[in-house]
Amino acid sequence: MDNVKDSEISKRTVFVTVGTTCFDALVRAVESKEVKDGLLRRGYTHLFIQMGRGTHTPTKSVGGDGSLSVDYFNFSSSIADHLRSASLVISHAGSIFETLQFAKPLIVVVNEDLMDNHQSELAEELADRKHLFCAHPQTLHQIIASMDMESLLPYHPGDATPVVEYINRFLGFPDA
């Protein structure tokens, strides 16, 4: 193998996404010494943060000296490539299903600043079903330290066809 391939194999990226909102509490949490140290202990080498409309700007670093490489951006037309290449995803609750479709280990961090936070209920339910880990900004470092990747179960979305057909019949639409 050449050096490029060797370095790509050893690169383990954590992709953090906050979506289009401001979730500075998550960005600050992943920048904390406790979280970075926990990620390093687990063999992660790169932290790539999508910070949305946040006002807190992460500190970039190149890593390589036993520290985590950190980079960030605000928005992307699609985060699919970032999700696909990540070894671990840390996300706000709005990107749960987009991440699970790539079968990536996922930590959902609940944004406690949102009113009527139904997404936290979804995250907690999926965590109870062992499809992901659920945290709050202040507990993220503890989840990283204690997470057991082997305990996660694949998420298989259900077939929505019967529900769609029922709704169509109820609304009087002809069968397709």
Structural description of this entry:
- The protein is of the alpha/beta class and 176 residues long.
- It has one domain: Glycogen Phosphorylase B (Rossmann fold, 3-Layer(aba) Sandwich).
- The protein has 8 helices and 6 strands.
- It has helices at 3-10, 24-31, 33-41, 80-85, 96-100, 118-128, 140-146, 161-171, and strands spanning 13-17, 46-50, 69-73, 88-91, 106-109, 133-135.
- It has a 6-stranded parallel β-sheet, sandwiched between helices.
- The longest helix has 11 residues, at 118-128.
- The chain is elongated and about 65 Å long.
- Residues 1-9 have low confidence and may be disordered.
- This is UDP-N-acetylglucosamine transferase subunit ALG13 isoform X1.
- Keywords: Transferase.
- Pfam families: Glyco_tran_28_C (PF04101).
- One of its GO terms (molecular function) is hexosyltransferase activity.
Salient structural properties:
176 residues; alpha/beta; Rossmann fold
Compose a concise summary of this entry.
The protein has 176 residues and is an alpha/beta fold.
Produce the secondary structure layout:
Layout: H1 3-10, E1 13-17, H2 24-31, H3 33-41, E2 46-50, E3 69-73, H4 80-85, E4 88-91, H5 96-100, E5 106-109, H6 118-128, E6 133-135, H7 140-146, H8 161-171
Parallel strand pairs: 1-2, 1-4, 2-3, 4-5, 5-6
- Please give the domain count: 1
Q: Report the C-alpha radius of gyration, rounded.
A: 18 Å
In CATH terms, the superfamily is Glycogen Phosphorylase B
Give a quick account of the main beta sheet: strands, pairing sense, barrel closure.
Answer: 6 strands, parallel
Oligomer: single chain
The global form is: elongated
Structural class: alpha/beta
* CATH second-level architecture: 3-Layer(aba) Sandwich
Report the CATH C-level class. Answer: Alpha Beta
Helix content bin: 25-40%
Percentage beta strand: 5-15%
Output mean pLDDT: 88
Q: In CATH terms, what is the fold-level topology?
A: Rossmann fold
- pLDDT < 50 runs, ≥5 residues: 1-9
Total strands: the figure is 6
